[in-house]
């Protein structure tokens, strides 16, 4: 879809184009409810999302358990196909009426899997996966980096950008993208295009990235990940199943303490198990700053928990009062050099 409005460049939020697209989305969501139906939640509602001028529209099927979708011939999913086709035709009809040109060759028709921005959205399995040609591209640029003698910051930055983008669908690579940041330095440097020697440390990072990418790409990531606060509420109410734990820790100048909890099934009853862990700092640790203390404390806590129990595949909710330490666990720390080495 192309609109005759000011060019939007990089700053798309709030652009005229975006305002118009949002009006369309609002209309689709709220249009003509039948008697007794609520506006915005009727059979004719089409929910959607937009990225600049790309639109994704969806129909929500009746809630039912895990199924194999349309491909597997699920009758409940099948029920909604006709409704979906009607919505799709309405969208095309309306755009014609409004004089909005659609790039028909780029359309993806009614389906439960769609491709966008290098990702495969698998709504039946609830997974976000990298598309094969994009995976090949990521792997080949990492190999190129590992085998090159020289590299510029600009080239490293493009690898980093790619890794951050695909970290949405490949687990455990986001934190490694932060390590590339340390190799690049700040972008304002005039040396952005100067050739740098590829060091052993860089090669090691490129190899590690490739290994992690190859290992975790096929698994994908959750399309609808749990909201931490809701998951925690569910945990407290005993609604989460096996494989979810909550770990709360705090650190001080002399050491750290943590309490971690999980539900265990004992002779048919769910029992909340808990363990208190206390430790001192290993000799030579830099614990003068709070964020470093909490970061190191969190690592030592996780190590001690793993001694207690095999946590492979577990989801652990981390609770701590230093936000930057929690952020460092999620995506590495680009401000402080100590956190990534922790
Ligand atoms: Zn189904």
Write a structural description.
This protein has 342 residues and is an alpha+beta fold. It is 40% helix and 20% strand. The strands form four sheets. Strands 3-4-5-8 form a four-stranded antiparallel sheet. Helix 4 (132-147) packs antiparallel against helix 5 and helix 5 (153-166) packs antiparallel against helix 6. The relative contact order is 0.07. Zinc ion binds at residues 64, 67, 69, 74, 76-77.
Helix content: 25-40%
The gyration radius over C-alpha positions equals 25 Å
SSE arrangement, N to C: HEEHHEEEHEHHEHEHEEEHEHH
Structural class of the helix and strand makeup?
A: alpha+beta
Q: What is the correct CATH architecture of the largest domain?
A: Roll
Give the cofactors and ligands. zinc ion
Q: Sketch the major β-sheet.
A: 4 strands, antiparallel
User: Largest beta sheet: what is the strand line-up?
Assistant: 3-4-5-8
What is the CATH top level name of the largest domain? Alpha Beta
Number of DSSP-assigned strands: 12
Helices, by number, come to 11
Principal-axis shape: globular
Chain-wise SSE layout:
Layout: H1 16-30, E1 47-51, E2 54-58, H2 75-79, H3 81-97, E3 113-116, E4 119-122, E5 127-130, H4 132-147, E6 150-152, H5 153-166, H6 174-184, E7 195-197, H7 200-216, E8 221-222, H8 228-236, E9 244-251, E10 255-266, E11 269-280, H9 290-308, E12 315-319, H10 323-331, H11 338-341
Parallel strand pairs: 9-12
Antiparallel strand pairs: 1-2, 3-4, 4-5, 5-8, 6-7, 9-10, 10-11
């Amino acid at each position: 879809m192309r609109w005759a409005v000011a060019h939007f460049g990089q700053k798309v939020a709030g652009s005229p184009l975006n305002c118009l697209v949002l009006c369309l989305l609002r209309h689709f969501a709220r249009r003509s409810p039948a008697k007794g139906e609520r506006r915005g939640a009727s059979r004719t509602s089409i929910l959607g999302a937009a990225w600049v001028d790309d639109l994704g529209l969806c129909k929500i099927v009746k809630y039912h358990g895990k199924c194999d979708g349309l491909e597997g011939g699920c009758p409940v999913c099948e029920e909604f196909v006709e409704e979906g086709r009607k919505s799709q035709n309405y969208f095309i009809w309306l755009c014609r009426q409004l004089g909005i040109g659609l790039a028909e060759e780029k359309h993806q028709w009614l389906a439960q899997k769609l491709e966008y921005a290098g990702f495969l959205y698998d709504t039946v399995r609830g997974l976000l996966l990298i598309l094969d040609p994009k995976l090949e591209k990521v792997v080949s640029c990492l190999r190129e980096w590992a085998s090159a003698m020289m590299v510029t910051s600009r080239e490293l930055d493009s690898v980093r950008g790619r890794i951050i983008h695909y970290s949405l669908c490949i687990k455990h690579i986001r934190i490694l993208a932060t390590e590339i940041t340390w190799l690049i330095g700040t972008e304002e440097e005039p040396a952005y295009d100067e050739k740098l020697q590829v060091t052993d440390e860089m090669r090691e990072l490129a190899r590690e990235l490739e290994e992690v990418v190859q290992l975790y790409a096929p698994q994908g990531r959750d399309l609808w990940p749990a909201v931490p606060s809701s998951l925690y509420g569910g945990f407290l109410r005993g609604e989460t199943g096996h494989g979810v734990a909550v770990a709360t820790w705090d650190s001080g100048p002399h050491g750290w303490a943590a309490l971690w909890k999980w539900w265990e099934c004992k002779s048919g009853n769910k029992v909340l198990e808990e363990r208190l862990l206390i430790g001192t700092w290993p000799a030579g640790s830099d614990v003068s700053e709070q964020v470093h203390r909490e970061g190191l404390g969190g690592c030592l806590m996780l190590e001690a928990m793993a001694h207690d129990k095999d946590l492979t595949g577990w989801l652990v909710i981390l609770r701590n009062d230093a936000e930057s330490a929690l952020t460092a666990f999620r995506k590495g720390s680009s401000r402080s050099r100590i956190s990534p080495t922790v």
